[in-house]
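Write out this protein's structure.
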Amino acid sequence: MTTLADEEIQTIAKDIATANSIPVQAVSTSPVIDSAGLVAIEVIISIPPGQSFAIMGGPSARTVSQVIQRLADAGEERFPIVQFGEKSSAP
């Protein structure tokens, strides 16, 4: 099974989100098990608080589909579960 390094997945996701005008604060990844019981990779794209309007509609849909496609093209065999979340600057 081919898996990309977390840093490579994070860079791909950040580049795609930024290209789709999403204000990215951070990208995190972690291995997960999907609903079918298969190994997947969770990709969480964090945006600043109050910026959820920036991901509504087209930008979020394009970002999710492009991340899935680019990771597959790069050889990642785990299915990416892409999510967005607001990241607070408070500790």
